[in-house]
Amino acid sequence: MDIAPLCKEGDDHDMVLQQQEWVKTQDMLKSRIILHDNFDWSLPSVGSDSDNSQARGKLKYIGGTDISFLKEDPSTACAAVVVLDADTLEVVHEEYDVVRLQVPYIPGFLAFREAPILLGLLEKVKTNARHFYPQLLMVDGNGILHPRGFGLACHLGVLVDLPAIGVGKNLHHVDGLNQSEVRRQLEAEENCSKELISLTGQSGTTWGMAMRSCSGSLKPIYISVGHRISLDSATAIVKFCCKYRVPEPIRQADIRSKMFLKKRQRVEQ
User: Fold this and answer.
1) 152: which of 23, 69, 108, 111 fits an S-S bond (Cβ 3.0–4.6 Å)?
2) b/e string for 115-142 if b means 16 or more Cβ within 10 A?
3) Could you give the CA distance from residue 247 to residue 254 in angstroms, rounded to a whole number?
4) What does pTM read for this prediction?
């Protein structure tokens, strides 16, 4: 009669040990993060037209990542990596994987649930369409705007050694920052025409930017550095990619992963 409580206690202990290992991994990977521009391309239509800019070449392909979940069974998910032409923002390649997630969602450790699947899809892009392999990743998730300063965008960027940008739809409580206060600032009369609000915490550290990507919207997106890119460049690229509230690489990954999951469901029914 005492088996269930003992099992639960054992499971909790195992999870504590697992989180300790995850913290060590995050700290190890975090030591490799680069928070400034470290790439050899310029942004199309936005970068300088100088000889130096032309010599570097333009950004050609942007990768977008997202994972959609089955409503009836949240452990079943479809991960997507899409690649967009940086000039036209049209999808030129896409890869999907429908999986049953074994790792639970634990705040602060999303990467250990989602990164392995997305890394596998990036490998598939490299194998199936190497010429479309992205030069930049835009991730549905946070970069350094994260309770431990190392979100999913950092995790992916460091492991594949690509410039990466985190774009979140919700704001973590980091260094005194909170979502209601950012929205209050956006609603303030003096900020009604502002597109950007700096996310500077109580420590004085700037963790990212809140961007009003649609005119008049009070629901910003939250941009932060993932790896090998500065916040200024990350913000400029996200702004360039926004046709709607969510930048196109992530928006397309979201739309297409949902469609793929629905098609898969119909085939199996």
Assistant:
1) 111
2) bebbbebbeebeeeeeebbbbbbbbbbb
3) 11
4) 0.91
